[in-house]
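Dear support,

I submitted the protein below through the web form. The confirmation email said the job was done, but the results page showed an empty box. After a refresh the structure appeared. I'm attaching both so you can tell me whether what I see now is the final result or a partial one.
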Amino acid sequence: MIDAASENIVTLTEAGRRLGKTRETVAAYVRAGKLDGATLDGRVHTSLEALARFVRPLDAAKEGAKRKRGTDPENEAMLRRLGVSV
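What the results page shows now:
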């Protein structure tokens, strides 16, 4: 759930840019309930915090598979683009 009063709201286009995905893919994540979204002024938005919540489980799942091989640079790069320290 997005708290528009305390979270950094971004458009789905901006979210896609930060994730390296298309706006349509991000919209599909929101429709599927995988990524939190909210309708503001008639348009669907998400937040940087929602993106971090979305990415962290992906990173944790990969971490289990790659524990002996080190961290996953792709997910670390994605978190850095979101402004989340790794």
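Response: this is the final, complete result; the empty box was a page-load delay. The first strand starts at residue 9 and ends at 11.
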